[in-house]
Amino acid sequence: MARDIGANLTDVSCSGATTANVLTAGQSGQPPQVRAVTSAARAVTVTIGGNDVDYLGSINAYSCRTGGGTDCGTVDREAIDRTFPALAGRIGDVVEAVRAAAPQAHVYLVTYFTLLPASGVCANVPLTEDQAAFERGIASRLAEATAAAATATGATLVDLAAASRGHDACSASPWVESYRPAPGRVTYHPDEAGMRGAANLVQSALRAGGQTATVTFRSGIAGKCADVRRSGTADGTPVQLYTCNGTGAQRWTYAPGAGGTLKALDRCLDVSGGGTADRTKVQLWTCNGTGAQRWVTGPDSSLVNPQSGRCLDDPGSTTEDGTQLQIYECNGSAAQRWTPTP
Predict the structure, then answer these.
(1) Can you tell me the distance from the alpha carbon of 51 to that of 319, in angstroms, rounded to the nearest whole number?
(2) Which DSSP string corresponds to 223-246?
(3) Model confidence pLDDT, tens digit, residues 240-287
(4) Which of 2.80.10.50, 1.10.645.10, 3.90.1140.10, 3.30.70.890 is the CATH number of 213-341?
(5) Beta-carbon contacts of residue 31 (< 8 Å; ≥ 6 apart)
(6) Nearest alpha carbon to residue 43 among 109, 91, 87
(7) Does domain 2-208 have CATH number 3.10.129.10?
(8) Do 20 and 94 form a contact (C-beta atoms < 8 A)?
(9) pLDDT tens for residues 10-28?
(10) Domain map of the chain by residue range?
(11) Single pTM value for the model
């Protein structure tokens, strides 16, 4: 997702982390995670609290026992129950610590994947009825604590738990691994489909929160827009000047202010060959996170490619439909004015 929107990603997530590992206690030789948050951050996603209440530890221990394993570990239900009343506050403390480090950041609290079906289990999720009921209780209380923390702090709730119902470890289209995953996989952790689902959900939240927007870029040349030729999606399809028509070929998703990619038809605006010279053409290309695909808004509604230091440009200020756009030394002319229009 970060590659697709052109975000600079800092990922300090770590398996087994508790709220204390985010706030005050190092983990595996690393400092508390909040120290990675800088004042430049504009969006921070957080999923936390599950290890405070031994969510994965307990479901793995129970699955081990019921599945006939040995050295399965213990589950302290009383300790788990004692922790829950404080959990929303702990998650809220994480949000406030992030805001202290990055006052302009929008914080998104993402709930955990749904691991179990609403009733029953399956062969690869070996739990008794009582164990499954207890784990469902942890999941629902964890989601409630996260929602309460979001309400109390004004963070945005991203309800992955709800979105992943029907994609549990026993489903025909799982988003998480079962207790008996393929080699190299981790029990009760997300698979590729789950990560795609989570990324899509977070990306929708970013749009709703104003971190990204989908617009038409209207040229300073009257009546013309930045357009993907014939709505093509093949790599190398020219991006051109064309009469504004409101089609998907002229709808671009970008990150206002922060900069990133300009994305249309699930591809990114790209400087051909990563070029930096005047008159290098621009095209549509698979999003790849390179400097050739990064754009920031500049003076006079310009779109600047930082790698080259040049602006998106209509060659010779032409008014002819089908003219392929280029990069050119920024000059403040109408040929370089691209006004985002919802």
Answers:
(1) 60
(2) TEEEEEGGG--STTPBEEEEE---
(3) 999 999 999 999 999 887 779 999 999 999 999 999 999 999 999 999
(4) 2.80.10.50
(5) none
(6) 109
(7) no
(8) no
(9) 999 999 999 999 999 999 9
(10) 2-208, 213-341
(11) 0.85
